[in-house]
Write a structure and sequence with these properties.
The structure is a single chain. Helix content is 20%, strand content 40%. By secondary structure, it is of the alpha+beta class. The protein has two domains: 279 residues, 6 Propeller (Neuraminidase), CATH 2.120.10; 40 residues. The chain has a four-stranded antiparallel beta sheet with strand order 1-2-3-4, with no helix packed on it. It has a four-stranded antiparallel beta sheet with strand order 8-9-10-11, with no helix packed on it. Strands 12-13-14-15 form a four-stranded antiparallel beta sheet, with no helix packed on it. Strand 10 and strand 11 form a beta hairpin. The relative contact order is 0.10.
């Protein structure tokens, strides 16, 4: 009966990990004019502000993957949730202090995620067609680009260049067509699930967060590709932003067995690292699950219990050996 219960508990834990793996983490990260970092946290259902090494809440109770700053300097995101059995989305908008403000735009029918202001196309957004699974770039006049079979990261620079990342690569919108930004398909194309955050630096380099392969990809102006950062077996890049020669990478715990700890809210699950122009890496902040302290105490109790059990078993064994020796000596005594 005990073995059956243990098996049930293990199955439940792995089922929770599977649920965590089924949805990709948030990739939204921005750096404000004051140098503060804003980033999304799906596990905590909030958007954080990292200012002077201190974490603050910008907005709570939101399931938001990405954030943008509008022309007023306000921050906007889309809160995704289920209303009954129907998928729903709402736009939220706050100022730099976290005070609610009216959003500059509303969601269009079947809009998927955010919208952006393009210098020529006006306000643009992506519409997801449920039947075909295709993503269509639209504005107020209708469809403005060829459909995409997948969509993850989106980046619009100040010049109006629009870039998107899919599971297979990075593309730029040119004359209503999507042009690949790499000479050859990226390593692992076709098997990748999530190529998430996307940005561009002042030198024209594109940066893409490769979640599944635990790496940050740099795509140069001549379409050359190199791996700028490998985050190791525990962490996977999800979001990226650039400022003043530095690249800032938002990272989530991996999508393999590591997600079991994320599902249980134990251990480190989110962090931001900075990569300077010389490739030096530093960690700005690391977030831990809210059950990490109790888990640590539990592990300590288990270790102490195991140590006590080993020592007790050793004492019992010594007592048995001593008694057996005494019994043999008594039998041999005339």
């Amino acid at each position: 009966m005990t073995a059956c219960r243990v098996t049930r508990v293990m199955c439940m834990l792995f089922w929770m990990a599977a649920l965590q793996c089924g949805a990709h983490p948030a990739w939204g990260i921005l750096r404000g004019d004051d140098g503060a970092f804003l980033f999304c946290d799906l596990a905590a259902q909030k958007v954080w502000v990292l200012r002077d090494d201190q974490l603050e809440d910008l907005i709570e109770d939101v399931h938001t993957h990405e954030i943008v700053c509008d022309e007023r300097g306000f921050f906007l995101g889309v809160h995704s949730y289920y209303r009954g059995d129907r998928f729903a989305q709402d736009v939220w908008c706050v100022d730099a202090t976290g005070e609610r403000a009216p959003a500059a735009w509303e969601l269009a029918p079947q809009q998927w995620g955010l919208s952006w202001v393009h210098p020529e196309l006006g306000r643009i957004w992506f519409r997801l067609d449920d039947e075909s699974g295709m993503y269509y770039l639209e504005n107020q006049t209708g469809q403005v680009a060829k459909a995409l079979p997948g969509l993850q990261g989106v980046y619009l620079n100040a010049s109006g260049d629009l870039f998107v990342s899919t599971g297979d690569g990075v593309y730029q919108l040119q004359q209503n067509e999507w042009r690949s930004m790499t000479r050859e398909p990226l390593e692992g194309a076709g098997n990748r699930r999530f190529l998430l955050g996307l940005t561009q630096d002042a030198q024209g380099n594109l940066w893409a967060a490769d979640y599944d392969f635990h790496r940050l990809i740099q795509i140069g102006p001549e379409q050359e590709v190199k791996v700028a950062l490998r985050t190791g077996w525990w962490w996977s890049p999800v979001g990226v932003t650039c400022d003043e020669g530095h690249v800032y990478v938002l990272q989530h715990s991996g999508h393999g067995w590591q997600s079991l700890f994320a599902a249980l809210k134990v251990g480190p699950y989110l962090r931001i690292q900075s990569v300077d122009e010389h490739g030096r890496v530093s960690t700005l902040v690391t977030l831990y699950g809210n059950r990490s302290r109790w888990a640590g105490l539990g592990v300590l109790v288990l270790l102490m219990t195991a140590l006590w059990w080993v020592r007790t078993r050793k004492k019992i064994r010594l007592i048995r050996v001593r008694r057996q020796k005494q019994c043999r000596e008594a039998e041999n005594t005339p």
